[in-house]
Design a protein that fits this description.
With 389 residues, the protein is an alpha/beta fold. It is built from 15 helices and eight strands. The chain is 48% helix and 11% strand. The site of magnesium ion (MG) has 5 residues, from helix 9. Guanosine-5'-diphosphate (GDP) binds next to helix 9.
Amino acid sequence: MEYLIIVIVLVVLVLIAGGAMLVRSRRRPGRARGTEPPPAAPPPAAPPPAQPPRPGEGDGAGQPDLLIPTVTGPPAEVAEAPQPLAGRMTRLRGRLARSQTGFGSVLLGLLSRDGLDDQGWEEIEDTLVGADIGAAPAAQLVSELRTQVRVGGARGSGEVRALLRQDLIEQVGADLDRSLHVARHGDRPAVVLMVGVNGTGKTSTCGKLARALIGEGHTVLLGAADTFRAAATDQLETWGRRVGAPVVRSDREGADPASVAFDAVRQGIDDRADTVIVDTAGRLHTKTGLMDELGKIKRVIERQATVDEVLLVLDATTGQNGLRQARVFAEAVDITGIVLTKLDGTAKGGIVVAVQRELGVPVKLVGLGEGPDDLAPFEPATFVDAILG
Ligand SMILES: Nc1nc2c(ncn2[C@@H]2O[C@H](COP(=O)(O)OP(=O)(O)O)[C@@H](O)[C@H]2O)c(=O)[nH]1
Ligand SMILES: [Mg+2]
């Protein structure tokens, strides 16, 4: 009898332990989006996979840690020659259109109604606000459209679409200078500083941009000034290896980011590189901390070269939170352009209008996926056409 009880207890314990393990292993693949990419098949010489995040381990700003590797596309795709930057947004517009379900077609549907009343116009305004365009631009758009519709009288759906298209393009800013300053000048490389909060896509953008520039015949060097975690440096190195760009890094976790940036630019000058792209840490600890860190990196670079672009990387899916981040970064450093990533993952493309207005600088590049060629120069008309379907 005692034997039987002991055997039953043992069986129950084994079942409980087995169940617990099953639950834990089930949970692992379903991580929150943007915290850890599913591990892609590593390239032959890839660094060892990073440790899984420990609870409570972060960057000091309450942001989850990010792990390598980032590229989830098959290595064969990476080995192919990069697509030219020009025309990429048109090629990738399907990603946008797919993610914009709602916004454009809802607007067109509302505008095509016969005898739009105040409530209808309010719905149009709400739809625009819901797409993150911002309250002021939404009100402005509605007032313009109202005038146009009143003056022109009843219109067909084609005409309504043309009006809306024109007004949206105007809001997005068709005439802003979105050129990227990445060309070597004199005996100095152009320097691009990539800034933004952890997880927005800085390191991927460094890699994608390097790949695109190399495809256009530039020589590019990468600087791993995100020294906060060794994994961040490894991630950039993986990109460098894949795209054919040397990476200047420090072997010491927590090394001074400014000194890595300095070394990278020094190396870029010695190598006669066209462009040096410097990746930074996205620690939004305090505004003064951020200012000190980014300010120091910039000053130290400027001892030997000019910083031609300071690109703020923003995750389009973060909405108002992204705008708040943008404000803090803009106070810390002079931003010259915005890279809006993950536009493939949001139906709220209106953030383009809101963030440009907030910072007074143009969106220069957009991220439309995790693949190595999923970075495109921003084109207002293509963007609006994708939204309107
Ligand atoms: N869907 C999508 N994912 C992106 C895009 N850009 C970056 N990511 C992913 O966002 C995650 C964080 O990117 P990472 O470059 O490490 O961000 P960082 O912390 O700012 O350097 C990675 O899983 C990237 O693959 C994009 O445009 N679209
Ligand atoms: Mg990074």
